[in-house]
Design a protein that fits this description.
By secondary structure, this protein is α+β, with helices and mostly antiparallel strands. The chain has 6 helices and 18 strands. The longest helix has 30 residues. The radius of gyration is 34 Å and the shape is elongated. The N and C termini lie far apart (about 130 Å). Keywords: Membrane, Transmembrane, Transmembrane helix.
Length: about 350
Amino acid sequence: MALTRRWAGRTWGTNIGNLFVVLDGDDAALTGVLRINEQGVGIAVYNVVGTFEAPTLKLTGTPASEVEGVELGNFASTGTMNAKGEIHGDWETTIGTAGTFILFPHAGGEQPDDVQRAEQFHIARHNFGAIEIDREQITEVAESIRREFPSVVVTVVAGTEQARYLEDFKQLQFAVDRAEIIKIFAQKPDGSGSNQVVSIEFGPQVNTAMTQSANEAWVLGQLETLKRDLKRYERTYVTNFKRWGIGINQMMLLAAIVFLPSLNDLSDRAILMGIVLSLIVGVNWLHSRYVPFADIQLREKKTGWLRKAWPRVASWGIGIVAAVLATLAAAYLQGALEIPAPPAPPSNVEATRSNPSEQ
């Protein structure tokens, strides 16, 4: 069966105790035994039946035996599985008691004979260029992933880090307009003793998508799907020409290295490299300040041609100015460009007055 057979956990509310559940059968017709150990009461045993329709588990139970001096009632519970495989939910009984619970899977020793535990994991990654995405688009990406996974976790870093399930993320109200980092994570069992994992991260240093599984074909196919879905949010800036994998910084550095032998003096070569390296630092700083590698909008994104064109215009403007400055510096050091000296101030000619006695 798809659902793990053995679970251990804890219950809170009107009754606090440790839980152990053993389930059997198909997901649509589960049967099993639940044991709860409540301090001061002892162990109560319930026969349970239920269903699991990912990500929701529903169980009802009746006491299998009486506990002396304790009134037991029938119970009903509903829980939801998260990305870690844990089940969180609520329970209530016919005698008025109620509370919450959590169950953790214990899958050891229950793999079918015809299923071999995975001996190798396959991981595939793809790095994107600059990304521009808003909250609605983040939700669309997460929804597309959820079609194949029971739950999706969205993590937002905006001053503080908040990890929320997709349903909670949709309702969350943010106090800031932009996020520094956004992460989307989902996983599910793949039937071979391992998990299928999808992870997306956009941030100031890296924009990447990753898939992991024991099934190589699934890993590669899922990554291609993510690349196709996320490509529309990618932006081309002057710091990274996606087709060739280089940017304006690498081109300026390469041009400086090629140009160095044409300079005779070691001091001129050092000056040129210093200017080029300073320009590279300046280009990176200006892009991080005005053209972020990941522009993540947490509120409704303003539309308009100027808003859409501004990042590219700013990026290419910064790159062109830096390239022109580097070219002028190289030409000046080689002597091909002469900067005229400022004109000399007019000489002060003192008027000689004739002495009346000399006339």
